[in-house]
Amino acid sequence: MANLRPVNVSIRASDVPTFERVLGLVPDWMDVSPFDRDGLFRRLVSDPNLDLEGALVAWLGDEPVGFVLAVGRRVPLENAPDDSHRGYLTLLAVHPSHRREGVGRALVRAAEAFHVAQGRKEVWVSPYAPAYLWPGPELTRHADGVACLTAEGYQEVYRPISMEIDLRRAEEPGFVREARQRLASEGVGFAPLGAGCYLRTLEFAQRVFKGDWVRVVRETGSAILSGEASPSRLIVATADDGRVLGFSHYEGPRFGPIGVCPGQRGRKIGQVLMWETLHAQRSAGHATAWFLWSDDATANRLYDGAGFRTVRRFVLLKKTL
Ligand SMILES: CC(C)(COP(=O)(O)OP(=O)(O)OC[C@H]1O[C@@H](n2cnc3c(N)ncnc32)[C@H](O)[C@@H]1OP(=O)(O)O)[C@@H](O)C(=O)NCCC(=O)NCCS
């Protein structure tokens, strides 16, 4: 039977050197997938909501043996709905030699106490933006994480999937070429973001998708306008009267977000946008493209037919405090 209250472990908030040191250890403790290692440090340290009081380290003497990152909204995310009542738990890891000694549970409880002290009512693991890492523990790679959180009263919300496509073999299906021609004859165009449609695309994202989508358009759009990013990182679909109907985005090998205005769905605009972005990723030299979050229904409608395959399944969990 495991010891639920490890007598020798003390849990303390990080200072900057500790945080930097522990972030160097956590990817190995967690066996972070190669997909996620890239940019992990940058995403965490540039998060405007990062509060080192919620970056809790478990110490055994002067050795760090566990870490949890509790984060909550301090800076609004564009026009996203208010989620200040929610806490997030985005990283949880214990050194492999100190597993099943109660360290994981003690970290989860310390993270919850941090959230309660901040007035938060629930904890989610972990649909958090903007420093988005993954939708939750991976079903197989992090099965012990799912077990630990479940043992602490977390409940599964649902299981998002991550998919990947081999761009060297990917071939645009005939029906997408036909859809592109048909849409052209109907006045729908597809083009990389330029100065002429930046504000319209931003307004579209604000009105239709909100939150992190707006951040993506704002940040990538401004990088494109300043010449730091390739315009093809953001492909925009427009009607002949200039209305924005949808857009598709990539960053490195990471595909998405992609979205089409609800009233325009079913015209294959999403398929053409997706292929425009996959072609752009291939031209930029990427051998694969992947994304972190979809549901099975969208995979069925959009991604399966293109040749994406499911590579990971996550468990999104929630607990009411
Ligand atoms: C998840 C993790 C942090 C748990 O740390 P830990 O210190 O071993 O956890 P605890 O000792 O407090 O165990 C808590 C409970 O979780 C469950 N659990 C943990 N590991 C388990 C495993 N391998 N199999 C079954 N149950 C497990 C048990 O119910 C356990 O309680 P018990 O020992 O009293 O039966 C650790 O396994 C880890 O770092 N895993 C890799 C990273 C990861 O999965 N992180 C979560 C993704 S965000």
Provide an overview of this structure.
It contains ten helices and 14 strands. Helix content is 35%, strand content 26%. The protein has two domains: 9-157 and 315-320, Aminopeptidase (3-Layer(aba) Sandwich), CATH 3.40.630; 169-286, Aminopeptidase (3-Layer(aba) Sandwich), CATH 3.40.630. By secondary structure, it is an alpha+beta fold. The site of coenzyme A has 20 residues, from strand 4, helix 4 and helix 5. Coenzyme A binds at residues 2, 29-30, 92-94, 99-105, 137, 142, 144-145, 147-148, 151.
The CATH homologous superfamily of the largest domain: Gcn5-related N-acetyltransferase (GNAT)
Strand order of the largest sheet: 1-2-3-4-5-14-6
- Main β-sheet description: 7 strands, mixed
Low-confidence stretches: none
Tally of strands: 14
The fraction of residues in strands falls at 25-35%
Please trace the helix and strand order, writing H or E for each element: EHHHEEEHEHEEHEHHEEEHEHEE
Q: Percent range for helical residues?
A: 25-40%
